[in-house]
């Protein structure tokens, strides 16, 4: 019974339309999200890796001190150093997650009303 419903549903829906409309929104939202939060993640990673492998400790202050140090030594662009590999990792995962959520939401709403 459920298999027939899902088969009938997907035969009526144009997959290309769903992927293009929802994919653009998901891509934009994930890019904006990670652009806003990446500097905090960068500081967290640098604090975690500080002193690893016998390297000298560089960041002796708290969160704001690390931000100041990065901006002073590397400039504002230093806060976004390494964001491109992060996008390669995160954007597909976020897209798959949103696509699955939206598709299941539509399927379950149709079952509840039908």
Give a short summary of the structure.
By secondary structure, this protein is mostly helical. It contains four helices and no strands. Helix content is 78%, strand content 0%.
Strand coverage percent: under 5%
Helix content: over 70%
Biggest sheet record: none
What is the terminal separation in angstroms?
A: 14 Å
Give the overall average pLDDT. Answer: 77
Number of helices: 4
Shape: elongated
What's the β-strand tally?
0
Give an account of the 3D structure:
- With 114 residues, the chain is mainly alpha-helical.
- The protein contains four helices and no strands.
- It has helices spanning 2-12, 15-49, 63-74, 83-113.
- The longest helix has 35 residues, at 15-49.
- The mean pLDDT is 77.
Topology:
Elements: H1 2-12, H2 15-49, H3 63-74, H4 83-113
Helix pairs in contact: 2-4
